[in-house]
Amino acid sequence: MALNRKAVIVRKFAHDSFSRPWCAGYAVTSFASDASELEILDPAGKIVTLGWDQVKWVCYVRDFPSAAGDQTNPERLLHKRFSVRPRTAGLWLRMTLTDGEELEGLAANDRSLIDGPGLFLTPPDTRSNTQRIFVPRQAIQTLDVVGLIGAARPKRSTGPVDQPELFSSDAEIA
Question: Which of 27, 69, 73, 92 could form a disulfide linkage to 146, CB 3.0–4.6 angstroms apart?
Fold first, then answer.
């Protein structure tokens, strides 16, 4: 059975100054709740495994940075907070990660908020390179619900609507 893999950039917590703080590759689109490691397929075709305690976030991206591109912000995640109230339905979340960095996003209002290995978020700027963000539960220090953005409600009618008569009056029947 083939696994569905998408292009990702994994941002790691900076544990040492010698290794690069991110890696690029291909990862599955959903993670098992009992998975102890993140497994990605790097562009060279090698399997790279990272412990969840090393992973800050996994960004599902449109494309990888070029060699001459931005090596400090390869996911091009420029806006980490919403500048105005989001329009898409979902839970507007604000979280502080264990390294002190803050991140906002929209999450689905379902069981995935309490179950699973982490949270999938829609980032504040959907036009950037990052389409979705997965944040492992180990990376979240605090989590606040800023708001519940609901789907548009159908408009209610202002009053009773006149219905046409289905049958003629009783006098015409006899």
Answer: 92
Element holding 144 (H helix, E strand): strand 140-149
Residues 6+ away with beta carbon under 8 Å from 67: none
Tell how far CA 146 is from the center of its chain.
Answer: 16
The 3-state secondary structure of 51-78, one letter per residue: EHHHEEEEEEECCCCCCCCCCCCCCCCC
User: What residues contact 18, with CB distance under 8 A and at least 6 apart?
Assistant: none
CA 53 to chain centre: 19
Please say whether the beta carbons of 103 and 59 come within 8 A: no
Which 3 state secondary structure label does DSSP give 47?
Answer: strand
* Amino acid symbol at 134: F
Q: 96 forms bridges with which residues in the sheet?
A: 102, 142
State the Cα–Cα distance between residues 70 and 76, nearest whole angstrom: 8
pLDDT in tens, 80-133: 999 899 888 899 999 999 999 999 999 998 888 888 889 999 999 878 889 999
Q: For residue 29, count other CB atoms closer than 10 A to its CB.
A: 13
**Sequence letter at residue 125:** D
Which residues sit opposite 111 in a β-bridge?
A: none
